[in-house]
Amino acid sequence: MSTESISYPFTLDRAAIEKLLPHRGDIFVCRQLDVIGPHDFAGIANWPLDNALIRGHFPGLPVVPGVMLIETLSQLAGAGLLSGDPYARSLKGNNIGVLASVRKCTFTRPVLPGMDVHFAIHCRQMGPAAVQVSATASAAGMDVAQLETLMIYTDKDQLESALKAGG
Protein backbone atom coordinates (compact mmCIF):
# COMPACT_ATOMS: atom_id res chain seq x y z
CA MET A 1 0.00 0.00 0.00
CA SER A 2 1.02 3.62 -0.44
CA THR A 3 2.09 6.04 2.25
CA GLU A 4 2.03 9.15 0.04
CA SER A 5 0.23 12.27 1.25
CA ILE A 6 -3.54 12.41 0.71
CA SER A 7 -5.51 15.54 -0.17
CA TYR A 8 -9.22 15.49 0.81
CA PRO A 9 -11.86 15.42 -0.47
CA PHE A 10 -11.52 13.30 -3.59
CA THR A 11 -13.91 11.22 -5.68
CA LEU A 12 -13.63 7.68 -7.00
CA ASP A 13 -15.81 6.65 -9.93
CA ARG A 14 -16.94 3.07 -10.53
CA ALA A 15 -13.74 2.16 -12.42
CA ALA A 16 -11.51 3.51 -9.62
CA ILE A 17 -13.52 1.60 -6.98
CA GLU A 18 -13.23 -1.56 -9.11
CA LYS A 19 -9.42 -1.25 -9.06
CA LEU A 20 -9.48 -1.46 -5.24
CA LEU A 21 -11.96 -4.31 -4.82
CA PRO A 22 -12.23 -7.88 -6.10
CA HIS A 23 -16.05 -7.70 -6.57
CA ARG A 24 -17.52 -8.04 -10.07
CA GLY A 25 -20.84 -8.86 -11.70
CA ASP A 26 -24.27 -8.31 -10.18
CA ILE A 27 -22.93 -8.00 -6.62
CA PHE A 28 -20.92 -4.87 -7.51
CA VAL A 29 -23.30 -1.91 -7.77
CA CYS A 30 -21.10 0.94 -6.46
CA ARG A 31 -21.32 4.02 -8.69
CA GLN A 32 -19.29 6.65 -6.86
CA LEU A 33 -17.42 7.24 -3.64
CA ASP A 34 -16.48 10.61 -2.18
CA VAL A 35 -13.63 10.32 0.31
CA ILE A 36 -14.30 13.29 2.58
CA GLY A 37 -11.60 12.43 5.11
CA PRO A 38 -9.65 9.40 6.32
CA HIS A 39 -12.72 7.86 7.99
CA ASP A 40 -15.68 9.61 6.37
CA PHE A 41 -17.14 8.67 3.01
CA ALA A 42 -20.24 9.30 0.90
CA GLY A 43 -21.16 6.64 -1.64
CA ILE A 44 -23.80 6.01 -4.26
CA ALA A 45 -25.10 2.64 -5.41
CA ASN A 46 -27.89 1.57 -7.76
CA TRP A 47 -29.43 -1.82 -8.51
CA PRO A 48 -30.93 -1.95 -12.01
CA LEU A 49 -34.10 -3.98 -12.55
CA ASP A 50 -32.21 -6.44 -14.76
CA ASN A 51 -29.78 -7.30 -11.92
CA ALA A 52 -30.06 -11.06 -11.28
CA LEU A 53 -30.21 -10.50 -7.50
CA ILE A 54 -33.23 -8.21 -7.94
CA ARG A 55 -35.17 -10.37 -10.41
CA GLY A 56 -35.62 -13.10 -7.81
CA HIS A 57 -36.44 -10.83 -4.84
CA PHE A 58 -39.54 -10.71 -4.98
CA PRO A 59 -40.87 -11.77 -8.41
CA GLY A 60 -43.51 -9.26 -9.46
CA LEU A 61 -42.58 -6.93 -6.60
CA PRO A 62 -38.85 -6.27 -6.93
CA VAL A 63 -37.13 -4.94 -3.80
CA VAL A 64 -33.41 -4.60 -3.12
CA PRO A 65 -32.58 -7.17 -0.40
CA GLY A 66 -31.41 -5.60 2.88
CA VAL A 67 -28.36 -7.84 2.81
CA MET A 68 -27.31 -6.07 -0.41
CA LEU A 69 -27.31 -2.74 1.43
CA ILE A 70 -24.96 -4.31 3.99
CA GLU A 71 -22.72 -5.77 1.27
CA THR A 72 -22.56 -2.49 -0.64
CA LEU A 73 -21.77 -0.58 2.55
CA SER A 74 -18.86 -2.98 3.11
CA GLN A 75 -17.60 -2.46 -0.42
CA LEU A 76 -17.80 1.33 -0.19
CA ALA A 77 -16.17 1.44 3.25
CA GLY A 78 -13.43 -0.93 2.11
CA ALA A 79 -12.67 1.18 -0.96
CA GLY A 80 -12.76 4.37 1.12
CA LEU A 81 -10.35 3.00 3.70
CA LEU A 82 -7.95 1.53 1.15
CA SER A 83 -7.85 4.80 -0.80
CA GLY A 84 -8.16 7.41 1.94
CA ASP A 85 -7.08 6.10 5.34
CA PRO A 86 -3.33 6.58 5.94
CA TYR A 87 -3.28 3.65 8.38
CA ALA A 88 -4.93 1.22 5.92
CA ARG A 89 -2.64 2.43 3.14
CA SER A 90 0.43 1.76 5.32
CA LEU A 91 -0.43 -1.89 5.99
CA LYS A 92 1.99 -4.41 4.55
CA GLY A 93 0.71 -6.96 2.05
CA ASN A 94 -2.18 -6.93 -0.38
CA ASN A 95 -4.98 -6.09 2.07
CA ILE A 96 -8.72 -5.94 1.55
CA GLY A 97 -11.50 -5.27 4.01
CA VAL A 98 -13.70 -8.27 4.80
CA LEU A 99 -17.08 -8.13 6.52
CA ALA A 100 -16.58 -9.79 9.92
CA SER A 101 -19.78 -8.94 11.79
CA VAL A 102 -23.16 -7.32 11.31
CA ARG A 103 -23.63 -5.50 14.57
CA LYS A 104 -26.89 -3.60 14.13
CA CYS A 105 -29.09 -2.90 11.12
CA THR A 106 -32.46 -1.26 10.83
CA PHE A 107 -34.33 -1.08 7.53
CA THR A 108 -37.02 1.60 7.51
CA ARG A 109 -38.21 1.72 3.90
CA PRO A 110 -37.88 -0.60 0.91
CA VAL A 111 -35.37 0.25 -1.80
CA LEU A 112 -36.70 -0.22 -5.31
CA PRO A 113 -34.58 -1.10 -8.35
CA GLY A 114 -33.27 1.96 -10.16
CA MET A 115 -33.14 4.13 -7.02
CA ASP A 116 -29.85 5.81 -6.22
CA VAL A 117 -28.98 4.85 -2.65
CA HIS A 118 -26.74 7.36 -0.86
CA PHE A 119 -24.54 6.11 1.96
CA ALA A 120 -23.10 8.45 4.62
CA ILE A 121 -20.31 6.35 6.17
CA HIS A 122 -18.13 6.82 9.23
CA CYS A 123 -15.37 4.38 10.21
CA ARG A 124 -13.57 3.98 13.51
CA GLN A 125 -10.42 1.93 14.02
CA MET A 126 -11.10 -0.61 16.79
CA GLY A 127 -7.76 -2.45 16.72
CA PRO A 128 -4.84 -3.14 14.38
CA ALA A 129 -7.04 -5.06 11.92
CA ALA A 130 -10.62 -4.16 12.96
CA VAL A 131 -12.78 -1.22 11.86
CA GLN A 132 -16.29 -0.34 13.03
CA VAL A 133 -18.39 0.93 10.11
CA SER A 134 -21.52 3.01 10.76
CA ALA A 135 -23.76 4.38 8.03
CA THR A 136 -27.06 5.89 7.11
CA ALA A 137 -28.51 4.90 3.74
CA SER A 138 -31.08 7.08 2.00
CA ALA A 139 -33.00 7.00 -1.27
CA ALA A 140 -35.36 9.54 -2.80
CA GLY A 141 -34.54 11.90 0.08
CA MET A 142 -35.70 9.45 2.78
CA ASP A 143 -33.68 7.31 5.18
CA VAL A 144 -33.93 3.64 4.24
CA ALA A 145 -31.45 2.05 6.67
CA GLN A 146 -29.13 2.52 9.65
CA LEU A 147 -26.22 0.09 9.45
CA GLU A 148 -23.37 -0.88 11.74
CA THR A 149 -20.83 -3.55 10.85
CA LEU A 150 -17.32 -4.66 11.70
CA MET A 151 -14.68 -5.12 9.01
CA ILE A 152 -11.24 -6.65 9.31
CA TYR A 153 -8.21 -6.11 7.11
CA THR A 154 -7.16 -9.40 5.56
CA ASP A 155 -4.24 -10.16 3.26
CA LYS A 156 -5.93 -11.02 -0.04
CA ASP A 157 -3.26 -13.53 -1.03
CA GLN A 158 -3.57 -15.41 2.29
CA LEU A 159 -7.37 -15.39 2.01
CA GLU A 160 -7.23 -16.82 -1.52
CA SER A 161 -4.77 -19.51 -0.41
CA ALA A 162 -6.98 -20.50 2.53
CA LEU A 163 -10.06 -20.68 0.31
CA LYS A 164 -8.26 -22.82 -2.29
CA ALA A 165 -7.05 -25.15 0.46
CA GLY A 166 -10.61 -25.50 1.72
CA GLY A 167 -10.12 -23.80 4.99
Shape: globular
Element string (H = helix, E = strand): EHEEHHHEEEEH
Q: How far do the termini sit from each other?
A: 26 Å
What is the CATH homologous superfamily assignment? Hotdog Thioesterase
Which runs of at least 5 residues are low in confidence (pLDDT < 50)?
none
The fold-level CATH name is: Thiol Ester Dehydrase, Chain A
CATH domain class? Alpha Beta
Number of strands: 7
- Average pLDDT confidence is 93
Largest sheet: 7 strands, antiparallel
Q: What CATH architecture would you give?
A: Roll
Spatial strand order of the main sheet: 1-2-3-5-6-7-4
What structural category characterises the helix and strand content? alpha+beta
- Name the helicity range: 25-40%
Indicate the proportion of strand residues: 35-45%
> What Rg, in angstroms, do the CA atoms define?
16 Å
Q: How many DSSP helices?
A: 5
Structure explained in plain terms:
- The chain is an alpha+beta fold and 167 residues long.
- The chain has one domain (10-164): Hotdog Thioesterase (Thiol Ester Dehydrase, Chain A, Roll).
- Helices cover 26% and strands 40% of the residues.
- The protein is built from 5 helices and 7 strands; from the N terminus they run βαββαααββββα.
- A 7-stranded antiparallel sheet has the order 1-2-3-5-6-7-4.
- The longest helix has 19 residues, at 66-84.
- It is globular and about 50 Å long.
- The mean pLDDT is 93.
